[in-house]
Write a structure and sequence with these properties.
By secondary structure, the chain is α/β, with parallel strands linked by helices. The chain has helices at 51-58, 73-76, 93-110, 124-131, 162-168, 193-197, 205-211, 213-224, 256-264, 288-309; strands at 31-36, 79-84, 113-118, 137-142, 172-182, 201-204, 228-234, 270-277. It has a single domain (4-309), classed as Ureohydrolase domain (Arginase, Chain A). It is globular and about 55 Å long. The chain starts with 30 loop residues before the first strand and ends in a 5-residue tail after the last helix.
């Protein structure tokens, strides 16, 4: 596949994720870059529907080689931007989730690994419904919130509950789920009790810094092992000084460099898909949050490419 567009002036051309070609034939690629411009699951501040478009724009600043790891993803695998998983009825949450699931079912059937940009965190649920339909997968979850809440304002489907539902539906294995960066004020002391009761490994921000980065990486490896794993990166895991443009910011988060180091440690895993969610451009006119989202997307692309290009065991 030609990546000549990556050699053009970065302010020119049609904006795609990391300036890769727009692709309609899924059989020609290994990894699909996908936008999910949907925020019907937010509980307060909307705006993440604009995330994919602005991340595409800011991703023109991303180059082709990871200087820290040496990974050149476009040399390892074929990558294309296949557009957006856009529901026909975005104002009806359950139907919208079904449309997103159907979109990713086609991706799954093609054998392509999806790397997505949301959208609010509720979109990870329909993605998992498509990608983990046969058997539950492990989950590496970077976030300020566990997102294992229950009913809120009359609905169990919202961006604070996807991993409770995913566990109940048998999409993720809670004993192979690790949630990193949890913090912030709450209205219920037991708001995340589901995570603990089901055996998820929850690392609050205080423990994160008590353990140290290397020990946290060891925890990820211990929890996940060699299981097929999905990676989800909520931009609000970062301190809002690095990513102010998000719907539910929580001060006291990790740094962008710590996030990069964490993601870079995942290249040996058996990755089935990944996403970056909760980038809300209206809350950050500077564009730094979208640039950060694009950068984390590139880090994820590198580890996904390394995982995808490894020879399969017989």
């Amino acid at each position: 596949m030609s990546y000549e567009s990556q050699l053009m002036a970065r302010y020119s051309g049609i904006p795609t994720f990391m300036r890769v070609p727009v692709v309609t034939d899924l059989s020609s690629i290994d990894i699909a870059l996908i936008g999910i411009p949907f925020d019907g699951g937010v509980t307060n501040r909307a705006g993440t529907r604009h995330g994919p478009r602005e991340v595409r724009n800011q991703s023109s600043l991303v180059r082709t080689i990871n200087q820290a790891t040496g990974i050149a993803p476009f040399d390892l695998v074929q990558v294309g931007d296949i557009g957006d998983a856009l529901p026909d009825s975005p104002f009806e949450l359950t139907g919208a989730h079904k449309a997103i699931e159907d979109y990713y079912t086609r991706v799954k059937q093609s054998g392509v690994l999806p790397l997505s940009v949301g959208g609010d965190h509720s979109v990870t649920l329909p993605v998992l419904r498509a990608m983990a339909k046969e058997a539950p997968v492990a989950l590496i979850h970077f976030d300020a919130h566990c997102d294992t809440g229950d009913f809120y304002l009359g609905s169990k489907f919202h961006h604070g509950s996807p991993f409770k539902i995913a566990t109940e539906e048998g999409l993720i294995d809670p004993n192979k789920t690790i949630q990193i960066g949890i913090r912030g004020s709450v209205t219920d002391r037991d708001i995340w009790k589901f995570s603990y009761e089901r055996g998820m490994r929850v690392i609050h921000i205080e423990e994160f810094y008590q353990l140290g980065l290397d020990a946290v990486i060891d925890e990820i490896k211990q929890v996940v092992g060699q299981s097929p794993v999905y990676i989800t990166f909520d931009i609000d895991v970062l301190d809002p000084c690095f990513a102010p443009g998000t719907g539910t910011p929580e001060v006291g988060g990790i740094t962008t460099f710590e996030a990069q180091k964490l993601i870079r440690s995942l290249s040996e895993f058996n990755i089935i898909g990944a996403d970056v969610v909760e980038v809300s451009p209206p809350f950050d006119p500077s564009g730094i949050t979208a640039l950060t989202g694009a950068t984390m997307m590139f880090e994820l692309l590198c580890v996904c490419a390394a995982s995808r290009s490894r020879p399969k065991e017989e």
